Amino acid sequence: MALESNYFGKVEIEEQNRVLEYYSKQVERITLLEERNRLARELHDSVGHTFTSVIMGMDAVSYLIDTNPEEGKKKLDRLREVARNGLEEVRRSIHQMAPLDEGVSFSEHITHICKEFASHTNTKIVKQVEGEERRIAKPIFWTLTRCLQEALTNAKRHGHAKTIYVKIIYHIDWIELRVEDDGIGMNEEKPGFGIISMNERIESLKGSFMLTGNQYGGVTMICRIPLSNEGKEKIS
After folding, report:
1. Residue 85 belongs to a domain with what CATH number?
2. I need a labelling partner for 189 at 20 to 30 A (CA). Which of 50, 173, 230, 233 fits?
3. Which tens digits make up the pLDDT trace of 117-176?
4. DSSP reduced 3-state for 109
């Protein structure tokens, strides 16, 4: 009787170990898949945005070489810096490193992105901030950053926009990023990886994401994310 009890006890333990090993492998597989998806989103958004700026900037340089060599050289130097910054951003994405300057507000950060993009793509960008600016949590900060980069890139690359309107709205309970362009409008085909990625990012933060046509004939992107208590600190 004791031998039989020991036998069944051993079988039960072995079965439990097999189950634990199975679930361990499942967790590992899911973790790797999530990390792969995160990295794919980061690289798509950051690299795509940088390449669009550099390629369009190089187009301008090829023209300036003949008409204004000195200005062409200056623009080439700026593009070199954009490429370096893009490479550094890719490295940060891979290693999940925080940006070097932690003291920059979201509005300042957005202003920098808009100025860089406008300079290298010959696009007019009109930026507006509504409401009292607040510090926002890092996940919200970087999610809205990626959404802005994707919206700017799509507006220029696919919509051929001449003017892009960027608006940040601070509400007591949420923050909204609204990007409108005067391009050729939305493609009715299936949404691409970038659009799907933006939607997933926003949904992961319990926010809402919308794409629609607008009065300019182009596309309007609206990203709204609720602010947690840690994201409601006023900028002094």
Report:
1. 3.30.565.10
2. 50
3. 888 888 899 999 999 998 898 889 988 988 998 898 888 888 889 999 999 999 999 999
4. helix
